[in-house]
Design goal:
Immunoglobulin-like, Neutral Protease, domain 2, 8-stranded mixed sheet, 5-stranded mixed sheet, 32 strands, globular, binds (3S)-3,7-diaminoheptanoic acid, binds zinc ion, alanyl aminopeptidase activity, Aminopeptidase N, Peptidase_M1_pepN
């Protein structure tokens, strides 16, 4: 397979301005008729019209009124080329036949539980009809959908329903028209037996919008939260970004078989049921928050992605980084901002930093790919969102908004680049004093910058000198890196625990608080004057840049910041830094054959956090959580899987034993009371209660076990039920088997709930986990064709460090088998699973050897998809 390069981008020789599609949906073959209005692009050299198409059966091609014969065009497995088009403006009709019922890749038009739906981003439209499948070709669509009335009572596409009727023979049709030009990746069609809930939203300029969520019959009672989230998003986008919805109708359809979370098709979002369906007894707090965030994300795409789209797929972060940042801001406004920030940074470190440190590292704006579906990555999404956050930090809320307004004023209706976005931010803020050429490196250079430094206080002159250095390691294809523009949001915390003034040498006296400095050289010193007493610096408040900090804090400094920093993120961060330091020390002790002794100071600090827990239960639950095994692994040169697991469990047990009474008290104080709610407060209290329960079980506490069993048996909300069940499933309590069985019996018909059941077994650290997971592949509730099932069972297992990285290589062998099996069915899901191999070189020799065998076995599989090939080839490089 050949790589596609950013530098090869060229505008198309032809524009397609109108698309008239007609779908004749039938089992055994769907006929697609496409009438295109094409116009020559006079700005480029004359060239034939080359259309993309894959797995299509061509029935006929007509240019003007002339039917073409096979000699009039050229056809390959990927293209249809029509040479010598007459004139500059031509009408073309193309008829193809496709087989959605056989489509297991879930890309293009396919069936999920008997209903037709589409997924076109990134390049699925070419599996529906021949077309210039590229985002810079924007057209107006009219779509006629015809199908059996009884089987598919609901027929949907983008835009407005303009007509419908009876087609005879038990069939009916609907005609949809979308007035907004769009790239074909935003096309959608749904035909099925669906029911809907409905609400309305009046935009601030007075447009009444009908909002509908379509689901399979029986799920109507699980849509309310998604609908509320949609309405909140529409309002928030008006208030914060000044962006209003632009049609009279907004539809969401939830389907059970979907490769990712959801898709922002114009006015017809298609969602994975996971991000729509929720009832307190079926969905966890994480699910409720996930739904709010994803519904918002897809809605926000209406402007950032749809009205202004990407010129080419290298620009993917133009819409994804921006839209993730927008959904993060939204969720922060709807819930607790510090909690949201801590969760987002935890995820960034867990998945994006890991990606940046491995063979699949790539810039936010990649410059080459083999399969674009492999680039819907944490780097493009989450690091992309951090880049947006840095614009916001450097320009302030008002400057950022000026940039956004200019971006839309310039580019509404266009397909543009991340450079265009940067230019709008720059031009709207001429006095910002930002070196934009340097800032641009955040898009171009891969890897996570490291920042190190130290500070010194001079009591004679009352000055504090802070020195910071930055370093960016080479990544694949980028041996040499240049210094980045790194926004450092900082405070100087005085001995009284209060922020001191931040006056740089030569400035007028500043006020106390937080300020943002630009670190733009390899090494830089900042001298603060009028500092009355030696401070502890609080650096990168709110995580103001996606970097790895190593600053020469003493343990006492960190404990001080944990208790005193005015920035909640950095209070949490100080605890995490302290915990990582301690845990890695224990891992080293164990490796050297020394006893692991847990320092009392840390256990006391956790006790202090616990004693303050009632002030902010949500924050406390995060502050009490130790860094994950995966994150600790990233801090090691060679990942000591078993050592990390042992050290972390030892510390957890020590906390559980030492603070038993306080944990029991926290459990009881936060037990469910009153009506169920997903308010931030209620979620926070549940999180604290369940964190306390987990510590009690870590200490093998008898009362804790009894509480877990009682909670499993009597709780009504899924958060409490599944947390208790996960703890039981991870133990060797005699009730384990029975608890797992009663859960499965109760929920066997609720696919999303069963996903959780598979997940908790796959993530257990019991020694029999691989055997259990292997047996579960044959469970009647498991289906390898359903992506959610694969993500729960196989994905859950690969995230389980001790089991997946078992020294005997059994975990790698298991994954290779699944990747090979999935490669034939669904390349996107296969490749997502294959990414778990990527960091194999970070493990010891024995594990590396086993991983290599597994990787090579996948590499030698016949008919390897481009998706899997690209990941495996990069991993082996
Ligand atoms: N834009 C889609 C993702 C499409 C993934 C294609 N493999 C969902 C989103 O980011 O909103
Ligand atoms: Zn998105």
């Amino acid at each position: 397979p050949k790589a596609i390069l950013l530098k090869d981008y060229a505008a198309p020789a032809w524009w397609i301005e109108t698309v008239d599609l007609s779908f004749d949906l039938r089992d055994g073959g769907t006929l697609v008729t496409s009438r295109l209005g094409v116009r020559r692009n006079l700005d480029v050299v004359r060239a034939p019209l080359v259309l993309d198409g894959q797995e299509l059966e061509l029935v006929s091609v007509t240019v003007g009124d002339r039917p073409l014969g096979p000699d009039d065009y050229a056809i390959t497995p990927d293209h249809l080329t029509i040479p010598d088009l007459p004139g500059d403006q031509v009408a073309i009709e193309i008829v193809t036949r496709i087989h959605p019922e056989k489509n297991t890749a879930l890309e293009g038009l396919y069936k999920s539980s008997g209903n037709y739906c589409t997924q076109c981003e990134a390049e699925g439209f070419r599996k529906i009809t021949y077309f210039q499948d590229r985002p810079d070709v924007m057209a107006k669509y009219r779509v006629r959908v015809e199908g059996d009335r009884a089987a598919y009572p609901v027929l949907l596409s983008n835009g407005n329903l303009v007509d419908q009727g009876d087609a005879g023979d038990g069939r009916h049709w609907a005609l949809w028209e979308d007035p907004w030009p769009k790239p074909c990746y935003l096309f959608a069609l749904v035909a099925g037996n669906l029911v809907h809930i409905e609400d309305r939203f009046r935009t601030r300029s007075g447009r009444d919008v009908t909002l509908r969520i379509y689901v399979e019959p029986g799920n109507e009672d699980k849509c309310a939260h998604a609908m509320e989230s949609l309405i909140k998003s529409m309002k928030w986008d008006e208030d914060v970004y000044g962006l209003e919805y632009d049609l009279d109708i907004f539809n969401i359809v939830a389907v059970g078989d979907f490769n990712m979370g959801a898709m922002e098709n114009k006015s017809l979002n298609v969602f994975n049921t996971k991000y729509i369906l929720a009832r307190p007894d079926t969905a966890t707090d994480t699910d409720f928050l996930g739904i709010e965030a994803v519904v918002a994300h897809e809605y926000f795409h209406n402007w950032t992605g749809n009205r202004v789209t990407c010129r080419d797929w290298f620009q993917l972060s133009l819409k994804e980084g921006l839209t993730v940042f927008r959904d993060q801001q939204f969720s922060a406004d709807m819930n607790s901002a510090p909690v949201k920030r801590i969760q987002d940074v935890t995820r960034l470190r867990q998945v994006q930093f890991a990606e940046d440190a491995g063979p699949t590292a790539h810039p936010v704006r990649p410059d080459s790919y083999i399969e674009i579906n492999n680039f819907y990555t944490p780097t493009v999404y989450e690091k992309g969102a951090e880049v947006l956050r840095m614009y916001h930090t450097l320009l302030g809320a008002a400057g950022y908004r000026r940039g956004i307004d200019l971006y839309f004023a310039r580019h509404d209706g266009q397909a543009v680049t991340t450079d265009d976005f940067l230019a709008a931010m720059r031009d709207a803020n001429p006095d910002a004093g930002v070196d934009w050429e340097q800032f641009r490196r955040w898009y171009a250079q891969a890897g996570t910058p490291g920042v190190s430094g130290e500070g010194s206080y001079d009591p004679a002159t009352h000055t504090y000198r802070l020195t910071l250095r930055q370093f960016l390691a080479p990544t694949p294809g980028q041996p040499v890196k240049l210094p980045m523009l790194i926004p450092v949001s900082l405070g100087l915390v005085g001995p009284d625990g209060k922020d001191q003034a931040l006056t740089l040498a030569g400035e007028d006296s500043a006020t106390a608080g937080t300020r943002v400095l630009a670190l733009n050289a390899a090494e830089q010193s900042f001298t603060f004057t009028e500092v009355p007493a030696p401070p502890v610096p609080s650096l990168f408040r709110g995580f103001s840049a996606p970097i790895k900090l190593s600053f020469d804090y003493s343990d006492a400094d960190l404990t001080f910041l944990m208790a005193n920093d005015s920035d909640p993120f950095n209070r949490w961060e100080a605890g995490q830094t302290l915990a990582s330091r301690l845990l890695l020390g224990l891992v080293a002790d164990r490796a050297a054959g020394r006893d692991m002794a847990v320092p009392k100071g840390f256990i006391d600090a956790m006790g202090a956090t616990l004693s303050r827990a009632s002030e902010d239960p949500a924050f406390a639950s995060l502050a009490l959580t130790l860094p994950s095994e995966n994150y600790l692994g990233q801090l090691m040169e060679v990942i000591d899987v078993d050592g990390i697991h042992a050290a972390r469990n030892l510390v957890r047990a020590a906390i559980g034993r030492t603070h038993r009474d306080a944990l029991l008290a926290a459990y009881r104080a936060n037990a469910e009371q009153g009506e169920f709610s997903v308010s931030p407060d209620a979620i926070g209290r549940r999180a604290l209660k369940n964190a306390a329960l987990a510590y009690l079980l870590a200490a093998d506490d008898a009362d804790g076990k009894a509480l877990a069993l009682a909670q499993y048996r009597t709780a009504t909300g899924m958060t409490d039920v599944i947390t208790a069940l996960a703890l039981i499933a991870d133990s060797d309590m005699p009730e384990r088997a029975d608890a797992l069985a009663t859960f499965a019996a109760k929920w066997k018909d609720e696919a999303l709930v069963m996903d959780k059941w598979f997940m908790i077994q796959a993530t257990s650290s019991r020694p029999d986990t691989l055997a259990n997971v292997t047996a579960l592949l044959s469970h009647p509730g498991f289906n390898i064709r359903n992506p959610n099932k694969v993500y729960s069972l196989v994905g859950g297992f690969t995230g389980n460090a001790v089991a997946f990285h078992a020294a005997d290589g059994s975990g790698y062998e298991f994954l290779a088998d699944r990747v090979i099996e999935l490669n034939k069915l669904n390349p996107q899901v296969a490749s997502r699973m294959a990414k778990s191999f990527a960091r194999w070189r970070k493990y010891d020799g024995e594990r590396q050897a086993a991983a290599k065998v597994a990787l090579e076995r996948v590499a030698h599989t016949p008919d390897l998809s481009r998706d899997v090939y690209e990941i495996i080839a990069r991993s082996l490089e």
